[in-house]
Amino acid sequence: MAATQGLARRSEGRAPILRIFRTTSFRFTFFFVLLFTLAVGVLGAFVYRASFGAASGQTDQQINAELTALADLFAENGPGMLTRVIRQRTVWRDDSIYMLIGAPSGAVLAGNLTALPPEALTAEGGFFDFSYERPLLDAAGREAGVVSRPARGKVLRFRATPDAEQSFLVVVARDVASREFLRERLAGLFQRILAATIVLGIVVGVLFSRSLLARVETVNKTARAIRAGDFSRRIPRSGANDELDHLSENLNSMLDQIERLMTGMRDVSDNIAHDLRSPLTRIRNRLTDAAKAGPDERDNALQATLEDTDRMLATFNALLSIARIRSGEGAGAMAPIDIVAVAEEMTELYEPAAQDAGFSLTLSSKPTPLVKGSRELVSQALANFLDNALKYAVGGTRIEVCAEPDGAKGAVLSVSDDGEGVAPEDRERVLERFVRLEESRSTPGSGLGLSLVAAIARAHGAALELKDGLERPDGGVGLCILLRFSAAD
Amino acid sequence: MRILLIEDDAEAAAYAAKGLREAGHVVEHALDGEAGINMAGAGDYDAYIIDRMLPKADGLSVLARRRDGGDETPALFLSALGEVDDRVSGLKAGGDDYLVKPYALQELLARVEALGRRRSAPAAGVTTRYQVADLELDLLSRTVRRASQKIDLQPREFRLLEYLMRHAGQVVTRTMLLENVWEYHFDPQTNVIDVHISRLRSKIDKDFDKPLLKTVRGAGYSISEDD
């Protein structure tokens, strides 16, 4: 445990730039850059092939056609005619390049190439690329030097007859300088586009992952603050309403839930302290006195102590029940139950005690749909309502238990009295105490009953409400406390 | 009664054993589940008191193994857990009663004695009549008579009296009454049981010289002939 924590901390503390390389967003961006680069490359290759591949094919065709024509000319009219035609065609104005070398002398008979390109010797019968020197003309048309230009050509050996010893070497070529120039421009352009794509991708990736990292870091910061003890901290939302905001919301509501549970636990332990300290103090004082007293007082003290400890045990059990109901245990026994039956049984159980306390306890019920719940827990809630009514309906004489349908599928279980009641504006606050369990409780045990009911209501998904109870003879109204159940599924 | 107490908390065990011995029982103590199983196999006991959480073999499996072997000795589970679900799983494993810690010693005594009664009257289903002094309860005709005088009881009062008479001479706690007569496993804050008892008492004792339904202070109630 400690070891893994140490590891985690170490990776957190690594240099930020290294951390960026390890983020998902960076890897994501990296692969995107790679993909874009590849796409640009494929596009470039395609454009190149489409334009220059075709042009170069055209050049080759022209050269082939010209060579065929020259070969025919040679076959029909002999070398003299060939020499003349080539001489005629040899004008620097266009891109055509020729060379005719007589055999066996090796003399250049015609053409505008000053020397046989070395590439021609190795590529006999095929195409070859070479560079040649060409006079550079100034504005007036005079020669102002030479320039080396790229060209592409083909070389063929012409023979008068298949077995003739005398053969002529013919080179037909095209100047490809303008095309090469364009090709280089295009290649350069693509290189720059490629470079720009990569640079832009990296910049965007770094910025993107840094902003993502910054937001993840706020989550981490909050988590660290909470770990350090500040449980009120929550992850701020960026307002973009994106996945990260949803994540923050979910984490926040999870934290709220945990805080609620923790508050519940703290409440329980506070209550244990509160509810058990006073009787313990009482017992201690009583025993101290009894140690100095006579046998009769001692007996009385022991008896009273016994009763006190019984009450403490009851308190303890109630606290444990609350904790268990709150934590969702005990919900396993949920089954469709009949609220009316619960109301009947509890009325029967409480009727004698109510009569003893000067109340008439009556039941009013209508057939009610079954609700999903625990008979034990709902009975316990109802018992608490009745306990409270008997304890607090001061001046009242009637208590009514009521079970009736609520809408098509729900049910309401209520206890109404004609006691002093609670003013409507105070009811919310009273319910808060039901739910929150935080105010100090002056009557021992009572607050526990209320929080037990609240826990039971929550476990059943039932609403706990206060409203006007039964009318008093003086025109006032008592209190009605009710549980509103939704339908059993 | 010979009681086997299987409990790993030595102090809690000593307290329970002392209380049970003072009430006249013979108590033997096992500190863990394995020892409990062995001792239960070796000795003849009238009741087992088994803690739910034990080292080596937990309480549920200890009893389940005894029950598999045909051991019908009544058993009471002690548990720090509580609540209905745990109670149900305890009863499913073959337990006859369930007591949540912390408990009052009186509660444990009353329940153990009720278990012992169950054993000494094994054909409980056959019993159709109970009698304590001149008070008679007939399960078949659902009538109650005292000194041959018929007494009218509400159905619940009848069940209450039936339970008390089935455990005649024993202390029955309020919690036991709530669990067995009303089938609730929580304790209301109002003294509902006391009022039911006093109503019952007014019907069966009021017009007669000798009170039979007695309050045992700090423990519960008992129905018996002697004082």
Report on this structure:
- The complex is a heterodimer of chains A (489) and B (227).
- Chain A is 58% helix and 19% strand.
- By secondary structure, chain A is an alpha+beta fold.
- Chain A is rod-shaped.
- In chain A, 25% of the residues are buried.
- Chain B is α/β, with parallel strands linked by helices.
- Chain B contains eight helices and twelve strands.
- In chain B, the strands form three sheets. Chain B has a five-stranded parallel sheet, sandwiched between helices. A four-stranded antiparallel sheet of chain B has the order 6-7-8-9, covered by helices on one side. In chain B, strands 10-12-11 form a three-stranded antiparallel sheet.
- In chain B, helix 2 runs parallel beside helix 3 (59-68) and helix 6 (155-166) crosses helix 7 (174-182).
- The longest helix of chain B is centred in the middle third of the chain and has 16 residues, at 105-120.
- Chain B starts with a strand and ends with a strand.
- Chains A and B meet through helix 7, helix 8 and helix 9 of A and helix 4 and helix 8 of B.
Mass-distribution shape of chain B: elongated
Figure out the total of helices of chain A: 11
What's the count of strands of chain B? 12
Task: Give the distance, in angstroms, between the N- and C-terminal Cα atoms of chain A.
Answer: 44 Å
How many helical stretches of chain B?
8
Cα gyration radius of chain A (Å): 51 Å
Principal-axis shape of chain A equals: rod-shaped
Helix/strand/pairing class of chain B, anyone? alpha/beta
Oligomeric nature of the chains: heterodimer
The description of the largest β-sheet of chain B is: 5 strands, parallel
Query: What number is the mean pLDDT of chain A?
Result: 80
Give a quick account of the main beta sheet of chain A: strands, pairing sense, barrel closure.
5 strands, antiparallel
* Biggest chain pair interface: A-B, 37 and 27 residues
Low-confidence stretches of chain B: none
SSE series of chain A: HHHEEHEEEHHHEHEEHEEHHEE
User: Helix coverage percent of residues of chain B?
Assistant: 40-55%
